[in-house]
Write a structure and sequence with these properties.
heterodimer, A: 360 residues, alpha/beta, seven-stranded parallel beta sheet, four-stranded mixed beta sheet, 15 strands, globular, B: 325 residues, Rossmann fold, UDP-galactose 4-epimerase, domain 1, two-stranded parallel ribbon
Chain lengths: 360, 325
């Protein structure tokens, strides 16, 4: 059976992909950054005790900014497939930590490709790179497909663009089976809490139960193509099972604004929002007249990406891939899960125990 | 009028030397950097006779502290970022160093300007390598990038970092997308210099054979001393913008080769061995440029064409080897 190495295994996609590959019978190795706090919540259910024989799920400490750790782990694991999902993945944070973003998101890709070469694994190991719709930035055509020119607008997008092209270059120059999945936004109940979709579903669930007063957002007119991460990881695997490596756009082909997302999540919770005002003064009120959604310019970015909409025709045609989970189902699942944890918090509080609010 | 201060990162290279010469001529106080200014060779500045007029500082662009230190010490009005690993071939062997010196280096300069709240204008040396193979359709400022080497990918990242910082923070920062530009200061690992040097030795009686890879590649060759003028003009505009800088004429390497040997009364076919092992896996086949925006907005155009350039290079080489012997 095949062996896969997933960098970024503790993240949303890493967790879904690990689960997916284990079901397919893979042995899954994961690269995990050293942190002082546990960050393995998302893969806790997959964990296997080191004392168990024939483990199928194994974690390694390593870091995308440390070549020696990457070479050592890849040498030990001898993977058939590497999924490079590790990254500083937050656009806004990339403006605050541009060099770290370049180091992990751009040079990190190069370090893994170099490790494949150094270990002579060019013919054995296939490489998947998590590219992003942020490459399209200030979009040059609508919708965006594989041939749309890039216009990156953040240190995150620039670093990811480097990653994209270095993958193409190593494929052409050294014949490595390496490809880019240009994934549009993909969400789930285990999306990071600081990403806008999760921030919305979590906040509205907590507002519903009186654990929080209001939700503050940045650009509510921003439009995105939102899919479900579970659908997208299948595509990542499919891309490595072809005869020839190619790059693919992965998207739903449907677009919604941040405001649409707020409305959909509120409806799911039975909250009616009445919108008033425009721009920074825009506010959302519940039926009792309480302001529950407002704009905070702090969340505006130095350069905004206004609209992203993907055209997944190539993936559909060549890989037979179509997303199965709709926007409404996605929002509904996220809201349900966040409502559950809000209810748990409420219960715990009612009985006099402390819970963490995890506000950022 | 106060004297303007210019900082040239990578002053020891070909472009750095010509730019220093130009800016001195325009009355600037010129500061230059090299990774270790104590031990660096400033041969090019010496050849142009301006070594003593340029104050040289040590600066490692991949070290933020070093960048801040030099920016606050020099307080430049204009910064020209010409530093970084500059060989496409070497970038396959040193991909990380290439990325760090080019892309992280540019990032540190931009962050340094922001941190100091400086109003300095930044010119960034881009590269036609970012376009990859242009095909017969000449590349202009709107042509999408298809970089095909670690060098080109790093240059593309630096290009977009500059554009992002301009949009995000309103800095005056821009990239010049320069096509090949030659001069007697080119080191011999560049094929043009390699051809001219060998042709001159052969004209003086050497019986050597010149080994070359693919001579069908097509390039737009310009004259470096003219190109540095375009860099300067790019920083004198009202709004910063990207520009393609080229002659607008492309030739095969074979044409360049034949022109060089002809200038010395020789036939290249008698002296050249074609060696396919010198070819690079992802060498660009064709590179065509459309520099009309620079003509229109910068009032800049290349006067020297390939034939003139070959003449100048051959003359310079013959004079130099004459003075050596």
């Amino acid at each position: 059976m095949k062996t896969a190495l997933i960098t970024g295994i503790t993240g949303q996609d890493g967790a879904y992909l690990a689960e997916f590959l284990l079901k397919k019978g893979y042995t899954v190795h994961g690269l995990k950054r050293r942190t002082s706090l546990f960050n393995t919540d998302r893969i806790d259910h997959l964990y296997q005790d080191p004392h168990v024989d024939n483990r199928k799920f194994i974690l390694h400490h390593g870091d995308m900014t440390d070549s020696s750790s990457l070479v050592r782990i890849i040498q030990q694991v001898q993977p058939d497939e590497i999924y490079n999902l590790a990254a500083q993945s937050h656009v806004a944070v990339s403006f605050e930590e541009p060099e770290y973003t370049a180091n992990s998101d751009a040079l990190g890709v190069l370090r893994v490709l170099e490790a494949i070469r150094i270990l002579g694994l060019e013919k054995k190991t296939r490489f998947y790179q998590a590219s992003t719709s942020e490459l399209f930035g200030k979009v040059q055509e609508i919708p965006q497909k594989e041939t749309t020119p890039f216009y990156p607008r953040s240190p995150y997008a620039v670093a990811k663009m480097y990653g994209y092209w270095i993958v193409v270059n190593y494929r052409e120059a050294y014949g490595i089976y390496a490809c880019n999945g240009i994934l549009f936004n993909h969400e789930s109940p285990i999306r990071g809490e600081t990403f806008v979709t999760r921030k919305i579903t979590r906040a509205l669930a907590r507002i519903k139960l009186g654990l929080q007063d209001a939700l503050f957002l940045g650009n509510m007119d921003a439009k995105r193509d939102w899919g479900h991460a579970k659908d997208y990881v299948e595509m990542q695997w499919l891309m490595l099972q072809q005869e020839h490596p190619e790059d693919f756009v992965i998207a739903t082909g449907v677009q919604h604004s941040v405001r649409d997302f707020v409305n959909a999540a509120a409806t799911e919770l039975g909250i009616q929002i009445r919108w008033e005002g425009e721009g920074v003064d825009e506010k959302g009120y519940d039926t009792s007249g309480k302001c529950i959604v407002a704009v905070d310019p702090r969340y505006f970015r130095p350069t905004e990406v206004e609209t992203l909409l993907g055209d997944p025709s190539k993936a559909k045609q060549k890989l037979g891939w179509t997303p199965k989970i709709s926007f409404d189902e996605l929002v509904s699942e996220m809201v349900r899960e966040d409502l559950k944890s809000a209810e748990r918090d409420e219960l715990v509080k009612k009985h006099g125990y402390k819970t963490m609010d995890y506000l950022e | 009028m106060t004297i303007k201060r210019a900082l040239i990162c990578g002053v020891s290279g070909q472009d750095g030397a010509y730019l220093a010469q130009l800016l001195l001529h325009k009355g600037y106080a010129v500061f230059g950097t090299s990774r270790d200014a104590q031990t660096a060779s400033f041969r090019n500045l010496e050849l142009l006779g301006i070594r003593s007029h340029v104050s040289c500082e040590s600066m490692a662009l991949n070290d933020f502290r070093s960048v801040l230190h030099v920016l606050s010490k020099v307080r430049p009005d204009e910064i020209y970022n010409l530093a970084g690993q500059s060989s496409v071939g070497l970038s396959f062997d040193q991909p990380v160093e290439t990325m760090e010196s080019i892309a992280v280096g540019t990032l540190n300069l931009l962050e340094g300007i922001r941190f100091l709240g400086a109003t300095a204008r930044l010119y960034n040396a881009g590269s036609s390598e970012c376009f990859g193979n242009t095909g017969a359709r000449a590349a202009d400022e709107n042509t999408p990038f298809h970089p095909r080497s670690p060098y080109a990918v790093a240059k593309a990242a630096a290009h977009w970092t500059v554009a992002s910082y301009r949009d995000a923070y309103g800095l005056y920062a821009c990239t010049g997308i320069l096509f090949n530009h030659e001069s007697p200061l080119r080191p011999e690992r560049f094929v043009t210099k390699k051809i001219v040097a060998a042709a001159c030795r052969i004209a003086r009686g050497s019986r050597e054979k010149l080994s070359l890879g693919n001579i069908e590649v097509i390039r737009d060759w310009g004259w470096a001393p003219e190109y540095v003028e375009a860099m300067w003009r790019m920083l004198q505009q009202q709004t910063p913008k990207e520009f393609v800088i080229a002659t607008g004429e492309s030739h095969t390497l074979e044409e360049f080769l034949s022109t060089a040997f002809q200038a010395l009364g020789l036939d290249w076919r008698d002296h050249v061995v074609l060696d396919s092992t010198i070819m690079r896996q992802s060498d660009l086949v064709a590179s065509y440029a459309n520099p009309s925006l620079a003509d229109k907005l910068l009032d800049w155009r290349a006067n020297m064409r390939m034939v003139d350039i070959v003449d100048l290079l051959v003359n310079a080489q013959m004079t130099r080897s004459a003075s050596v012997s």
